[in-house]
Design goal:
Number of domains: 4
Mean pLDDT: 78
Low-confidence stretches: 1-32, 299-309, 418-432, 585-596
Largest sheet: 9 strands, mixed
Radius of gyration: 32 Å
Shape: globular
Number of helices: 22
Amino acid sequence: MKPLFAWLIAGAALFGLGSNALAQAPGAQIGDPAQVAISLIAAARVAAPGETMALAFVQEIAPNWHIYWTNPGASGEPTQMTFEAPAGFVLSAPDWPTPTTIPLGPLVNYGYSGEVVYPLTLTIPPDAPPGPFTIGVKARWLVCEEICIPEEGEAQLLLAVGETPVPDPTNAARIAAGQDLIPVPSPFDSVISADGAGLLAIRDPALAGSLAAGDVNDAYFFADDPLAVDPNAPQAVRRGPDGLSIALTAGYGGPLGDKPLTGVLALQERDSAGWRWRGYRLTASPGDVGEGVTDAALAPASTAPPATSGLGQSLAFAFVGGILLNLMPCVFPVLFMKAQALLRSAAGAQAHARREGLFYGAGVVASFAALGGALWAIRAGGAEIGWGFQLQSAPIVAAFAVLFFLIGLNFLGVFDIGASAQNLGSSLSLQSGGSGAFFTGVLAVAAAAPCTAPFMATALGYALAAPALQAGLVFVALGLGMAAPFVGLSFWPALTRALPRPGPWMERAKQIMAFPLFATAVFMIWTLAQETNADGIGITASLIVLAGLGAFLLNLARSTLVRGVGLAIMAAALGLAALVPERHGAVAGTEISTTPTDGVVWETWSPAAVAQARAAGVPVFVNFTAAWCLPCQVNDRTTFSSSAVRAAFAESGVRAFKADWTRRDAQIATALAELGRAGVPTYPLYPADGGAPAFLPQILTPAMLIQAVSNNPR
């Protein structure tokens, strides 16, 4: 005879006592994510021992927001679920519904909106005693609209084991509706062309009949492997007497057709209820596509909106940001070079001035295009990097230190390079004529790369997520903007005539400008100390001495041979910077600051730490910075060192985190990309109510920061 207590529990469930808790478990979600509510539902309230019952994990998404499929497409993260059940109870893996495409400008994501039901099954052990039991789930997901918010939550479902099952018709209907959206095994013969053309052929007599009758009018293929198929490329669908074909574009995982391709084929089908999308899970084997599936277009390609959507604004922001980049401190060491070239041109023919302007502009645009191409290609290879990535390399920083030291020596008159030595890039920038103007543009971009001017952040965030063509256009627009003032002056005689007349003062001014260049070299060495070890600093100091020796020989000797040796030594000093070792590991200064200071006390940054602070309902400020970023260092030593700023942070309850990007860090790169930014400084201030962050200016004053945090009290 069963224990009386067990019978009482089962009886209460049978007759509906506490039926709300057993059916819907209101309030079972732990926590209150802002945009997505989660729950567990079951097709029955009571199940018999040995029975298999239908369950589902449900996400209810706020209007206009979306979450992601297992392959999120161009960006995003899929929901992660961890289920808990009593010992002996067996839960199946949840089934994922057929996703939809979610276009965002030139990008296409894969995911869901509205209510999402993930069906799964629960098998009760044959020897399970009667009585209640709990099924639980812990889930994490990324929910996006114009911004993306990582959320997490827990839910529990109270059920019971009893002799007689008690169904829950309402939730059984919800689960059945969700099951209807799960991809079914494909009945089709599927082939992916083995020649690398990316043509997916779907053959089936019934499908061919539906196509002929007009009962299928569109198709889309969702690959399981995020790297297999480019989600942003159009998928042109064609049909024939044997079935249909979809033209796919290979992703970063290599050519299509060298191995089986798995995924979900979504067909827009017509039935008695009207048009609907139905998913078929298939595996396409490499082979010959043949004929009968490519005769005519089925429908317009299932793809994102035209790639120019959002491109115009990004190009405008890039152009304006390029203009403002001329005012950033990073560019200061080469401003005098531009001024010298312009003054020389002003003294000569207007045609010469225009030629210098065009060559300078060509150097700037070509450098931006090359830098953008390298950045896009490296990211396409899977590396998480962003704007200023080249200064995350210790050898490149060391080379810059040597280069600025050499240019400073040239400004002081220690050496001069004639037209016969035009192959040294840094010296070319100091020459007159087309080559000098072109390489002045190259050097300007090299010096400007660590800076992010206003308007640039949005444009770069777009470029780093866009296809190659659109990304290239944004970087070209940046170059055109940076070159525009100098090129405009060279083509506007009235402004050129307003410049000071050339004279002896130019040589004295040139010598004075050598010292900011030396200061820049010192700044590069200080940056290098964050990226290398003591040996690296010693190697760099030795290379600077070696470069000085080359400059001395170049100035001292009249012999062509000795001057050539001097040039070779200078070039070697630049090249040998490759010997400077990288230092891996955490960057000093990212740990929590416990030493009392007058300025802001920074906590260790991590996505989890920021999410936890935001969940606590307090304002959060993040300082995305780097040692090689001059505006970052100016803000660190002025605004963030202010006692008034520290007091304002304390009064408003602001949690402050520092994310140091001096060396490459994939987490920081990803966080910046999720914010729509690509470089530093970036200063998001998250409000206490969990809303979207406000972005503070890159050149930040204490008054600006105090006002911002005062408007966001806890």
